[in-house]
Every structure is written in C-alpha cells, then in structure tokens.
Design brief:
- With 921 residues, the protein is an alpha+beta fold.
- It has 5 domains: 149 residues, no CATH class; 222 residues, CRISPR-Cas system, Cmr2 subunit, D1 domain, cysteine cluster (Alpha-Beta Plaits); 96 residues; 179 residues, Alpha-Beta Plaits (2-Layer Sandwich), CATH 3.30.70; 113 residues, no CATH class.
- The chain has 33 helices and 28 strands.
- It has a 6-stranded mixed sheet, sandwiched between helices. A 4-stranded antiparallel sheet has the order 6-7-5-8, sandwiched between helices.
- Helix 1 runs antiparallel to helix 7.
- The longest helix has 29 residues.
- The radius of gyration is 30 Å and the shape is globular.
- The relative contact order is 0.09.
C-alpha cells in the first residue's frame, strides 16, 4: 500500500473533536472520513499503528480511568491551562458542519496523494479559519487525544500514527537520523553578508532536498524532527512539485532558512539493504543538486567549459557536503526489538530498570506495552550511533598547491579579478597563472559583475557557488531570487539613519540617491532595504541606495573606482558630498556600527533525549492524578526514579514529545522570530532553525530584539495590539496569537546568546568567528547557561566583553541596560543626561585598588559621587527633578553591579558598551 492510501485510513481513525465526546469518537471519525470520500476503513488498517503510538504516549495508566476535558498540560513543563466547560453537543455539531463544508473543496483534488498532502497541510488551517467561537478557537491546536493524559494533542497523535508502518500485528519501522555539514566552518567563511546568508540557505536547502526522498516514500509525517508543517521549503515543494494550493503560503517566506541541518524520521522499513539504498540515493541526490547548480550558474553566466575544464570545478566541489546517517531498525529477524537487544548501547543496570518499568506497565497498565514503549531507548541508541559514526571521518580536503581562495583560504583560486581594468577570469591552472604562463578563460564582465567578484578577489569553486547560488535559486526555486541582494553590514548599521532621514529630511535624502544612481549607473547598487523600512516607510529596492554610500569616508574617487569600477568627475563628487552633508545637518551622521546576534537553545540534546522532561504527574489531568490508586502512584514513581537514577520520576520520552518540541521550535521560528527581528525592528534574519537564530540588527533596536527573542523562546511573552511584548508572568508555555494558543518550549527552556558589535568595515569573517566564540562564552561563563554576552569590537582594535544573566529578580537585564543607555545619551529629547565620562574615572580609581576589598557602601558612595559630577541638567530645573534622575540612574546601575556578582570590570564593560551604542566611535 502506498504511503498516502495508508495515511488517509490512519488519519481518520480518530475524530479531531474526540475530547468533547470520547465514547462516540470512532463513529464520528468514520462519518468525517466519508465526507472526504474515504470509505471502508477497517480496524486492521490502523489498529496496530494506533496501539504503538498510544503505547508510546499513554501506557502508564491503570484500567478503567475516565475523565472529561477540563485542562491541557504543557508537555515540557509543570504548567497547564484550564479549559472552560464547553457544551459538547454544540461543539460536535459545529465541527460536523465545518468539515462538511470544507470537504467539498477536497473533491476537486485529482488523486489520493494530493488529497493526503492537502489534508496534512491545509485541513487544520481550513478548520481554524471557520471556527467562529473565540473560546473554542483558542484551544483548537492543542485539543488532546486523551483527556486523562492531556499533554499531547490529537494532531501529534495522528502524525505519529500515520508515520508508523504496520500490517495487522506486524510493524516494519526504523528510526533514521540524517545530518549535513560542516556547519560552522562553511557559514563562517564569508566576506560579504550574502556569502554568510547563502551558506546558511544552502545547508537548509540541501537538507530539505535529502528529506524529499523520505517524504516521497513515506510521507511528510514520517519526519519527526523538524516538524515540516508550515515550513516554507515544504510549502514550496507542495506548490511547485505537487501542484497544490497551500493555505497561507507566502513565497517570500522561502528566503528565510528554517530547516536545520539534520532530521529524524520514522521510515517504514527494517531491511538493511533498503535503508542503505535510501540513504545512498539521498546522498547522491544532494551531490547531483550541487552539480546541477554549478551547471546552471555557468550556463546563465555564459561560461562554456569543456568536459576536462568542468572537472576542475567538480574536483573542488567533491568533498561538499559531509553527510552522515544512521538507522535503528525496530525489528530483529521476525520479532520486534526487545530491551535486551540494545545491550550494546546501555549498561546492564539501565536495561534492568527499563525491564522493571516494562513489567509494571504490563501488569498494571491499561494497554499492553509494545515496541512503542522503547522509544526513548531507540532514540538514545540512534544518537549514540551517530556519535560513533562521526568519529569515522572519511572526508579529507585534498591539498592543492597554489594561491588560495580569498574566502575560505583552503582551496585554490579558480575565479579571479586582477584589477579594476580587467575582466573576471576562470583560471585553468593556478600555478601556471600566478607563477608563470597565462592559463585562463576570460569571462563576461556584465555576467560576473563587481557584485560577484571585486578587484583582486579570488574564489574557489565552492565559494563561487556560494556567491552565485541565487542565480540557481531563481531558475529552480522561485523568481523571488531574481537579482537577489542581502543587506550589507553598512545597510544594517545605517538603517536607523535612513529611517530618520526619510521622516525628517526626505527631499534631501531622495535627491542624494537619485543623483548618485544617475552618476554611478550600477544596478546592483539598488538593494533590498531592511524589511521594516520596506513595510513601514514603503522603501523599495528601486529607490534604495546601498548603505555604505551614506558614510562620507566612502565618497572619494579612488574608493568608487575600486568598489564599483566606475570613473567619477570631481565636480560630480563635490555635488554628492554636498547633498550628503545636507542630510547629515538635519538628522546627524549614521552610526557605523551594527550587531550580529546568535541565539542558541540551551541543553537541546538533553531536551531531545528526555533528560529535562517534567515529572510524571505533570502528564496527567490533575483530577486523574489525584484519584489514581496510591499503590499505583507509589510504584510508578519508584520505578521512574530508579530508571532515571536520580530523585526524580520524570516522564519517558515519546515521539509525541519529540513532535511537541519540534512544533514549539517551529512556532518560535515561523510565528515569532521573523515578526520580532524583521517586522517590529530594524534587523535581518540569516537563519532561524528553531533553537538556533542568527541575525544582523541595527544598534537602535539591539536590546529590544535580544530580550524579545530570549523570552519568546520560553513563551514568556504576550501578543498585544499586533506587537510582541515580554511578559514574565506568562509561564504557561502557551502564547495567544491571533486568537489561537501556540505551543512554545515553556518556562523551563532557556537559551544563551552571543552578540558582537562591530564596525561595518570590519572583515565579516572575523566578526562571524567572534560571534560563534562569544556565544560559547555566554554558555560557559560561571559554568551556567541562560546568559548573554556582548563583545564590542572597536575600529581601533580595542575590545570590551560584558556578560549578564537575562533577568535580575523580576527585572529584565536588557531593560535596565536600555535605561542606562538612554540616560547617557547626549541627544536625549529631555535634555538632561549623565555624561559617560564617569565610567572611565570609576574604572581608573578601582583598577588601582583591585587587591583591596571594599564594602558595597564605599563603592556605591564613590559611584554616586562620580555620577553626580557627570550630570548635565536643563535650564531652570527643580532640585528634586535632578535628584530623582540621579537616584533612578544609581538604582539601576547598582542592580547591574551587585546582582551580577559585583564584578566591577564586567560592570564597567557593560556601561561602556551601552554608552557606545549611542554614538559609535
């Protein structure tokens, strides 16, 4: 049976309104299936898959327990939300009516594959759109499949059931893990922001290309992590390759890489040769994609090479990417895997404890346990196997003699532009070209423009592919990549300047851009503005000049010649300078500094392995747990504590938990991150792969973006009046957005962040390496995670590092720093401010006396004296206004100093960084 026929029968085995009337749910499920033209569903079509999924999710429940729908449990914390008492009959009638209406649209679909894919992707959105009961709509995404253990939804249960391949009492499944790399070295090798972004996109795209084979063979629900629902590349696949109309799909969303470089799937085979064949085909598919990409790029650039010449490029591309895969079959011979079959991965004690829990479930549980009960053991074995596999490294970069690539510094230069007078060339023999005879092909200067290759820049085949991959994407993925440009560091740094100039000096601003583009007629100077500017001020690419040309140091003849390959007359240059000066007089000069942020979820390996799950009672409905027989509870807790080898009776890991984590991370990346960085603030995302987020941010909005990203990760936010705000009181793990509750990782999940503030001319490769480094420091400072660290890299070469925990009592550390930053700003609308000169004086005084232990009172007194002296007031101000201003400043400064451990050096660095953000150098 094909996966889609299997999917339809399994998907409709439970009704989506099941919690409102459990006794009749099977009859309703059959009726709803018939609405969609699915008849004659027999129990054997879904029964064993359902039992395996149910065993994974709720085997530790005694027989005879019943419970009405009163609450929803958060799967990853001890929180819950109570549900109002719905009138069940009315709710069921509403669902029946909605499904009858929706089903009419599915009659138009051609075959069962299209119907299956459309039901998987569109049905939930179709239903949500038609629910007119505000209260019901809130909970729709979270409706539990079992009201007794309401910590996983009907949607998660249906996903797992449809992923499991079974026939009668025979299952045939394996857990499969696939990963692509290298990540850090590949994305950090960049000279331009577009290199950086495109490297992230390539890894995300190639991972999805590999996934496609699993999707085609076993269906989209087989991918357990990441959750493919509403993922932009998955929506593109459904639209372009399957011809479906996808609800709410915005083609522009494809631009943001959201697929991580690894995935976990349940695949419907245990045959070793079949698994190898699948994996090898996926690897070949990825390699072919790279080869085809280069072929298309060469054709579009009108570079015609012989077979031997193409081999030069293919040789450099041959080691990319590095691919690893492992699989754990759920069968051994003709029988399901048993606990003892995993002895190579665990100690005897661990396996013995699992057997005891298994026996407890067999004797006392409602359902007889099966292979589903072993999911945590299977997943842990999978990860251990991957660790062992990666130790067997078979990819080795071939040593090449010759001049190295300007970006990676590893492979030889193949594409090169000698100077401003020459066309770009393709080098056929590196050694001959650089050390003797000419050996090259001259390329079209218009096709390989200065946007791709600047003077004295040489690229290897892989870095050239990275630089030009948008050409391929335009042809193969979507026209949205036509003339693609990613904002430069200068564009990000001056975004607030542009925002202010448009509001306060629009005429001068537009004149400057018009004149510049008239004099220097280069199409690639027109770049996409930051999304917020594009949306709020309606700036378009056609009238947006690249940011570096708003800095007066770049308006010199030599610079324009080198960067743009254009001659410019002195009188034209004088005219441009005059226009730029007129803008500067009205709104000031742009700050030349910007920020790169890298957020990384803490302990994601432990979350995925089940180590950080809440205690078992938090899986149950409160009434159910309270009413369980005491002997059952006591024995269950004892068994779980023994299993965990600690004084904690944690839940066991299930695919529903993995699905919940995947859903939470998807909600974070797709529903929240983009809104925070690109719609509400002056930022541009590089990637958002769930627990990893990287972005460029303008300094004006840096602290706001940092704090929103952090607290959105654990769901401690609220969506109010169309914007996202931090709300530490929301500890439920659910965020109400557009009238619907979305699952997040919950209050126990934390993340760390590294931030680098750099001059827009600082080599990007150095900045990227620093942000990786500073993110790791944030995770390991004081051997604690859940912190942020900021590195300020001054153009002069000086560096400052400040680090802090995210909150001080109930105050946001970033909010305190925002206040201090504002109070030290000389250009405040409210003219009074604290001159930042006191920081240096405080630093000098205490640097001399570091070996002496001072009391808090002495340090606070001296700090206050210096702050008082640094105060600059407004004419005729009242004494109490001055005192209040100084008092507020001191209270917040002291919080930063003492609540962060009394580290004066760190305190000074944080103050210097905050002050620096106001003005730059």
């Amino acid at each position: 049976m094909s996966w889609y026929e299997d999917f339809l029968k399994k998907f409709f085995h439970d009704s989506i309104d099941k919690p409102f009337n459990i006794p009749s749910h099977e009859q309703r499920a059959k009726e709803y299936a018939e609405f969609f033209g699915i008849f004659k569903i027999e129990k054997h079509d879904y029964d064993y898959s359902d039992r395996i999924a149910s065993c994974m999710e709720r085997s530790l429940l005694p027989k005879g327990i019943q419970q009405t729908f009163t609450e929803i449990r958060h799967p990853l914390s001890d929180e819950k939300i109570e549900v109002k008492d719905f009138e069940s009959n009315k709710v069921l009638e509403k669902f029946k009516s909605i499904l009858q209406q929706i089903a009419l649209n599915y009659e138009k679909l051609g075959d069962n594959e299209q119907k299956s894919l459309s039901i998987w992707r569109n049905l939930l959105e179709n239903i949500k759109e038609k629910i007119d009961d505000e209260e019901l709509k809130k909970y729709f995404l979270l409706l539990p499949v079992d009201t007794r253990i309401p910590d996983h939804s009907i949607w998660e249960h249906l996903k797992i059931t449809t992923a499991i391949r079974s026939f009668e009492n025979f299952q045939n499944n394996s857990l499969f893990l696939f990963t692509i790399g290298p990540v850090k070295s590949f994305i950090s090798q960049a000279r331009k922001t577009q290199d950086f972004y495109m490297a992230s996109f390539i890894l995300s795209y190639l991972t999805f290309i590999a996934m496609e084979e699993v999707i085609e063979k076993y269906g989209p629900t087989s991918i357990i992590y990441p959750d493919l629902y509403k993922q932009p590349l998955m929506d593109w696949y459904l639209t372009k390759k399957k011809g479906l109309s996808v609800k709410g799909f915005d083609p522009e969303s494809i631009i943001l890489p959201t697929i991580p470089n690894r995935f976990v799937a349940i695949i419907g085979t245990t045959n070793e040769e079949e698994i190898k064949k699948l994996a090898n085909y996926m690897i070949e598919k990825v390699k072919t994609e790279i080869k085809n990409a280069m072929e298309i790029i060469l054709n579009e650039s009108e570079i015609n090479l012989s077979y031997d010449q193409k081999k030069i490029l293919e040789t450099q591309l041959s080691d990319f990417p590095q691919v690893y895969w492992v699989a754990i079959p759920w069968r051994k011979g003709n029988n399901d895997l048993k606990i003892e079959d995993l002895k190579d991965f665990f100690t005897d004690e661990k396996l013995s404890n699992w057997k005891e829990l298994y026996n407890f479930a067999t004797e006392k549980g409602e359902f007889t346990p099966n292979i589903g009960f072993l999911y945590q053991l299977l997943y842990t074995s999978l990860e251990k196997s991957m660790g062992s596999r990666k130790n067997l490294r078979e990819f080795q970069q071939k040593e090449e003699a010759g001049r190295k690539c300007s970006i990676c510094g590893e492979r030889n230069t193949v594409f090169y532009r000698k100077d401003e007078e020459s066309n770009p060339i393709l080098i056929l023999d590196n050694l001959k070209f650089f050390y003797g005879k000419n050996s090259f092909i001259k390329l079209d200067d218009k096709k390989i423009s200065y946007k791709i290759l600047v003077e004295k820049e040489g690229l290897c085949a892989l870095c050239f592919l990275k630089r030009t991959f948008d050409i391929y994407l335009e042809k193969v993925v979507d026209n949205i990549f036509k003339d693609f440009s990613f904002p430069s560091t200068a564009e990000v740094a001056c975004a607030d300047f542009k925002e202010k100039a448009i509001k306060e000096a629009k005429e001068n601003f537009n004149k400057y851009i018009t004149e510049f583009l008239r004099i220097v007629d280069k199409e690639y100077l027109k770049v996409e503005p930051l999304p917020k500017l594009k949306k709020s001020l309606e700036i378009k690419k056609e009238n947006n000049l690249e940011g570096s040309w708003f800095y007066e140091e770049n308006l010199i003849e030599k610079k324009i010649k080198k960067e743009l390959g254009s001659d410019i007359k002195q009188n034209e240059l004088d005219k441009l300078n005059k226009y730029l000066e007129s803008i500067h007089k009205k709104v000031g000069k742009p700050n030349p500094y910007y920020a790169v942020i890298y957020l990384d979820g803490d302990n994601m390996g432990k979350w995925l392995s089940g180590e950080l799950l809440p205690e078992i009672q938090n899986a149950y409905n409160s009434e159910v747990w309270n009413n369980l027989p005491e002997n059952f509870k006591k024995e269950l807790i004892e068994r779980l504590k023994k299993l965990n080898q600690e004084n904690s009776a944690k839940k066991t890991l299930t695919p529903a938990i993995h699905s919940a984590i995947s859903t939470a991370l998807r909600n974070y990346a797709i529903e929240l991150v983009r809104t925070i960085v690109e719609e509400e603030h002056l930022g541009k995302l590089i990637f958002a792969g769930g627990d990893d987020v990287m972005a460029f941010v303008n300094l004006k909005d840096l602290f706001d973006v940092m704090e929103k990203l952090r607290w959105a990760f654990s769901g401690q936010i609220k969506c109010e009046n169309g914007s996202i705000k931090v709300d530490l009181s929301n500890t439920s793990g659910f965020v109400l957005k557009d009238g619907v509750y979305y699952l997040t990782m919950g209050k126990e999940a934390t993340c760390s962040m590294g931030v680098v503030i750099a001059h827009y001319k600082e080599p990007l490769k150095i900045v990227i390496e620093k942000v990786f480094e500073i993110k790791e420091k944030a995770k390991h400072i004081d051997k604690e995670k859940n912190k942020f660290a900021i590195l300020l890299m001054k153009k002069s070469g000086e560096e400052r590092i400040g680090f802090a925990k995210w909150s001080i009592d109930n105050d946001l550390t970033t909010d305190i720093l925002k206040k201090l930053k504002d109070w030290m700003d000389r250009n405040r609308k409210e003219k009074r401010y604290i001159s930042d000169g006191f920081i240096q004086k405080f630093k000098i005084e205490f640097s001399k006396l570091k070996q002496i232990s001072f009391s808090e009172r002495i340090i606070n007194t001296e700090l206050k004296r210096l702050v008082k002296r640094a105060y600059n007031g407004i004419p005729r101000e009242l004494k109490n206004e001055k005192e209040k201003f100084i008092k507020d400043f001191m209270e917040n400064a002291i919080k930063i100093l003492w609540e962060l451990g009394g580290d004066i050096d760190n305190f000074i660095n944080l103050l210097e960084i905050a002050s620096f953000m106001n003005k730059g150098d």
